Amino acid sequence: MAQEKLHRFSIAMLIFNTQAGVVQFILPRTIATYFGTNGWIVIILVYLIVTLNIMLINAVYRLGKGKSLFVILQDGLPRFMLIPVYLVAGSLFAMIGCLVVKQYVLIYQMIVFPSTSDLMLKIFVDILVFLFVTKGIYNMSKANLLMVFILLMIVPSGFMMLGDFDLLRLTPYVFKEGHDWLKGFASVYAAFMGYELSILLFPYAEKNNKWLKYVHLGNSIAMLIYLLVALLCYGFFNYHELKYLSFPLLDMFGYLQFPFVERIQNFIFSLFLFSIIMTSGMYFWSSQQMYSAVLPKLPWRLLLFLIMILAIGVSYIPKSLIIVEQWFDVLSLLEIGTAVGLPLLALLAILIQRGRSKHHAS
Amino acid sequence: MLQFISKWVQAKNKKSGRSGNPQSSPQASGPVTLQNIQDQFKDCSDLTHYTLPELQADLLFFDHQLDPHAYERDVLRPLLNITKDELEQLLRRSQFVAAKDVVNTVHGILNGYVALFLPQGVYLVDAYGPEKRSIEQSESESTINGPHDAFNESLGTNLGLIRSRLKSNRLKVLQYTAGEISKTKICVLYIDGIANMEYVQEIENRIKAIEFSSLYDGTMLTQLIDDFPNALFPLFQTSERTDIAVSKLNEGKLVVIEEHSPSVIIAPSSFFEFFTTPDDYYNRWVVGSALRLLRYLAFLITICLTPLYVGITTYHYEMIPENLLISLTESRSRVPFPPIIEALLMEGTIEMLREAGARLPTKIGQTIGIVGGIVIGTAAVQAGFTSNILIISVAMSAIASFVIPSYIMSGSLRLIRFGLLILSGMLGNFGFCAGIALIIIHLAKLTSLGAPYTIPAAPVKPRDWIDIFIRGPFWALNRRPAQSRSPNTKQNKMKK
Questions:
Q1: What separation in angstroms does the CA of B232 have from each of A233, B4, B408?
Q2: What is the pLDDT of residues B129-176, one digit of tens each?
Q3: Which of A10, A106, B11, B109 could form a disulfide with A141 if both were Cys (CB 3.0 to 4.6 A apart)?
Q4: In Å, how far is A185's CA from the nearest CA of chain B?
């Protein structure tokens, strides 16, 4: 039977879960540090800019008439120019995919298993990611849906914090006592990263333009979740306190009490393994797609295995969470460049292709 | 996919040496004579040879395969009441079919035909009707409300039960044979205009690809035709209940009946269908929905409760509220083992008790229950072997596993629980979540007859949720499930 296309809603959830991840636990602190009072407003501003970037990707799909990114690029640009692009983008995706796991594992090691080797935990998660990606994008989207349903069940528990939420803690001031806005902006923008991978989904999506709206839907859900988390943290703690909490969301969940269980923060953090598998999986899948364009004859599963082995090797270099975050700062800037650069390159290729067609026609 | 399954089955057959023995098949060469056919059945002492010298006729048959009334009505009485001259006229009757060759004759005799050897030629008369069990209630799928008749081992009876409920010429029955030696009949049922013909074609291909010496039951057949032979979960729903088979046909699915099996196969099936029962539809919809949700809760308890207990008591004591922590610590203070060993011991004991109870006769089975109850309930705690709270957890998990209507699914879930237990014992909540992620990844790749196994959750089909996660009111159940890919999606209004 014919392989089904990715369902629109699956794409929305794919984008949302690729964007969301460990960043939710850090985001309130980042916002409080760089933007000060009522820093949560910046999430909406960044969301609007990200929306423009998604519209750019949509334009590639529409002008490219649904063709794969690789076909669009190869139709317009010479292969020798494209190979470095594929290699750089593929390596960048692989490093992000790997560091997402590394960051999660280091945090887990810090809060639960201080005496366990982070490498052991990381290899454990990497095996899960490998198994996940080898199922192919269609099955990844199905697994992601099931994972998202479980993750979204956490959202109602956030409303249980409303009892301790105080509007006074938000203060009437906006962006007071913030600094390094540009750096802060890059950090918040990095929290939205993941949408740019939708450019690789063209051949797997339904052959109509409707699914493009669902990329926006996924991005909007991510924004709403970030907003909810940031607002809750601003009202639960205050922005002064937020600046000194490593993982404000985890601390907030620490106050939750149920009749049979309390201090569920590390269970909640464990559940975010689903999100990590998805985020890392999508980046590794994208990396494999890029490398497959360079080495089309190599079996894709073997290629994925080699990419993951290399990435794991490189990720062994940063030993602490602070260094991982520093690496992420650099990689995020490069990723923002890729998110804008790849669609622009594709548009250039389309223009060149059209120019050639007109020339031949005349 | 089909090629893969076929190759796999062939490879398995080669490995295990279970492929059909070619010598067991009759030799096609030679004329169809009494001597030749008797040679084919050499050393078959149950073969009956009956002679009618006045007609120069010989009859060969297996009397245990025959319906005595049909034999008397269609074979014996007509032959005894005629003279040699009237024989030609008698043989024009439709029940006398001329045998083509040796293979045809041998297969006819094996399938309950009477072989009639005459100077004019050899004829076969169908008198099939072996002993069969009467229609009874299903023991494995009992119900309180609704019809109580269940399928039995007779193919004809099973077909009759379905035909009597679906009086439509659109109900089609395709018949195949599988098994090198057993030559088991398999019938595929579908409703024309409702079922997707791609599924019919697919299942036909899979049945034809079976290369196995003998088939014994429908549940065995499911494993020979399923998409993933190594899947942890059953990929096809099986049932002994007639109302389930009929309702699934109405939903646009296929029903496969195997001769000599009371379990019919429903294809394609979704993971969530294993948590539904016909009782849901015989109750008021609110009650039916509550029961269905209870079953999903039972599913979660079955796989999660004991692993979470182990994970929390091993690594995350801080998650237990103070009041509960005191009683838990008291309860665990005398236990010399870590929670994982304690849990594995108890879960293992429960599984052994369940297995013993299932195999033993009912009266002894009750004794096992009492002995097990005392051993697990009292003695194990007093001896400091285990803690009270773990017993509650293990017992709740066991009870919850029995709430799941499908015994095969329940078995899969119990096995998964052991995996989660070990992972939780190794890595606490992290191991537990990794285990759940593994299950999800495994589930996501599974398909049933090529259709997604996790539908309607993934891919999302919200319209089907009303008949999967709850049991909606009948006015709302007006569409066939998306998994059926029916050309006629409206359930209450068929196209003409």
A1: 42, 19, 10
A2: 888 888 888 888 888 888 999 999 999 999 999 999 999 999 999 999
A3: A10
A4: 32
Is the pLDDT confidence value at B4 over 50? Answer: no
Contact B438 A146 (CB under 8 A): no
Could you give all domains of chain A from N- to C-terminal order, each with its CATH number?
8-351 (1.20.1740.10)
Last residue of a domain, one of B269, B289, B324: B269
User: What's the pLDDT score for residue B9?
Assistant: 42
Residue B245, pLDDT above cutoff 90: yes
Instruction: Decide if the complex's ipTM is over 0.90.
Output: yes
Q: Do both B336 and B192 map to the same domain?
A: no
Average pLDDT (B436-459) is: 94
Host domain of residue B245: 155-269
pLDDT tens digits for A9-47? 999 999 999 999 888 899 999 999 999 889 999 999 999
Q: What is the mean pLDDT of residues A107-120?
A: 89
pLDDT of residue B72 exceeding 70, the answer is: yes
* Residue B289 sits in the same domain as residue B434: yes
Residue A12 to residues A203, A205, A342, Cα–Cα distance (Å):
16, 11, 21
Assess A48–B contact: CB distance below 8 Å, yes or no: no
Contact A188, A180 (CB under 8 A): no
Chain mean pLDDT for chain B: 87
Q: Which of B269, B295, B325 is the last residue of a domain?
A: B269
Nearest Cα residue in chain A from B308: A267
Residues 6 or more apart whose Cβ sits within 8 Å of residue A45: none
- Write the residue in B202, B312, B437 that is nearest to A277 by C-beta: B437
Best residue of B3, B310, B319, B328 to probe chain A, by most A CBs closer than 10 Å: B319
Question: Is the bond into B459 cis (omega within 30 degrees of 0)?
Answer: yes
- Asked if residue B44 belongs to a domain, the reply is yes
* Helix/strand/coil percent split, chain A, to 5: 75, 0, 20
Residues 6+ apart with CB under 8 A from A358: none
Query: Does one domain contain both B291 and B376?
Result: yes
Judge whether B484 lies within some domain: no
Q: Does residue A146 sit at the B interface (CB-CB below 8 Å)?
A: yes
Claim: this prediction has a pTM higher than 0.80: yes
Chain A CA closest to residue B324: A260
**Same structural domain, B336 and B444:** yes
Same domain, B347 and B423: yes
C-alpha–C-alpha distance, residues B139 and A221, integer Å? 49
